[in-house]
């Protein structure tokens, strides 16, 4: 048709009569032809994961229009194996839809007459919630902060909640759920220790993450410091020291800064508190130091407390 038009143009430049005839002929042809019109417009297609999506773009056009499709404004190549077309391109089929197929699809019909016609619609993959990244066990030092991830997929976007030891986690100024589903705890406290899981829910389903543990560690801390004592020469002196922490600290004793020989040490664990009782015969004045040590995720930590023991009833020169 263009070729014909081109030749005609050339001829008509010099022959006005032919020009008139040509124009009459041209309008006759145009009368039979028409620019494409899309009679069935694209609609938003909601499709579940792994199902087939179909867009329909019914075109009225003379002569028949070439129909091309785009996804997110990028043309789909005619033989792209990801897609199937039917009905001379008026139907686009996307088999086994994945979330990567989401986007805006358009059909463009062009027959060289007038403006091409275009219609667009979105592909929205509907999907049951899935957990893409689970939280993991964490060991944290008291007063630090925790972020437990819970990355989900799903459409509509799943609502995320968190469960601790079978109860819903309460949101507070210290505990929040971030936009992307992670649980964030500021200023970790001992009572935050426990078992957690996230729950993702949308209108298509619900899914639970793995169960994970938050362990809260605390540096060693002495609760009961040994008391200063004055005892008669040669008697047994009893010093007590107790400490807590997570892991449970170990307690050691020093006499004037050195390890002690010939002393009795008795340890008792009550809950998270370790009590150490030192019994030693007082035959000289001395300084006794209780050392409490533990190793936690922040490193090692030792605290100490010292008591002076003085001896009465005998003079030391
Ligand atoms: C999706 O399309 C494929 C190929 O066109 C076909 O074999 C399959 O049965 C279709 N699946 C559904 C769920 O319609
Ligand atoms: C997390 O810790 C628990 C014990 O508290 C253990 O049973 C589980 O296997 C751990 N999970 C992972 C993912 O390491
Ligand atoms: C440890 O010391 C504290 C403070 O003196 C005391 O309240 C607590 O009962 C002691 N616990 C043990 C197990 O000795």
UniProtKB/TrEMBL annotation:
Family matches, as InterPro entries: Cell_Adh-Cytoskel_Orgn, Ig-like_dom, Ig-like_dom_sf, Ig-like_fold, Ig_I-set, Ig_sub, Ig_sub2
GO CC term, one of those recorded: plasma membrane
Protein name from the UniProt record: Ig-like domain-containing protein
Molecular function per GO: axon guidance receptor activity
Pfam family for this entry, one: Ig_3
Organism superkingdom: Eukaryota
PROSITE patterns reported for this sequence: IG_LIKE
Domain Ig-like as annotated: residue spans: 36-112, 129-213, 219-310
Gene3D superfamilies per the UniProt record, alphabetical: Immunoglobulins
UniProt xrefs under SUPFAM superfamilies: Immunoglobulin
Naturally occurring in which organism (per UniProt): Anguilla anguilla
GO biological process: homophilic cell adhesion via plasma membrane adhesion molecules; synapse organization
